Amino acid sequence: MSIITILCYPILTFNAHELYSQNENTRDKAIKIFYDCDFCDEEFIKKELTYINYVRDPKEAQVHVLITERIMGVGVKNIPSFLLG
């Protein structure tokens, strides 16, 4: 499991129990997320977090997840993440 998944999982699971306990129409009520990360395994995240609607246009999203990567000295990676919306 990647560090990105570990960081995003608690943030994005805040309404998971409520959505799983309801019927099939909950997909329409699920949060809309635009996932902006160049180096992440988006297919894995989409497969594991199925109760979220992923959108391709940031204007349609309720939350914009922005994850960047910076290489600090001596090969140390700094991976800040931002939630906008």
**Strand portion, in percent?**
15-25%
In total, the number of domains comes to 1
- SSE class: alpha/beta
Estimate the global geometry from the Cα principal axes: elongated
How helical, in percent, are the residues? Answer: 25-40%
- Total number of β-strand segments? 6
Low-confidence stretches: none
Strand arrangement, major sheet: 2-1-3-6
First and last CA, distance: 26 Å
Order of helices and strands: HHHEHEEEEE
- Name the average pLDDT: 76
Sheet with most strands: 4 strands, mixed
Query: How many DSSP H or I helices?
Result: 4
C-alpha-based Rg, rounded: 14 Å
Structure description:
The protein is of the alpha/beta class and 85 residues long. The protein has one domain. 31% of the residues lie in helices and 24% in strands. It is built from four helices and six strands, in the order H-H-H-E-H-E-E-E-E-E. The strands form two sheets. A four-stranded mixed sheet has the order 2-1-3-6, covered by helices on one side. Strand 4 (70-71) and strand 5 form a beta hairpin.
Give the helix/strand layout.
Layout: H1 3-12, H2 16-20, H3 26-29, E1 32-36, H4 42-48, E2 53-54, E3 63-67, E4 70-71, E5 77-78, E6 81-84
Parallel strand pairs: 1-2, 1-3
Antiparallel strand pairs: 3-6, 4-5
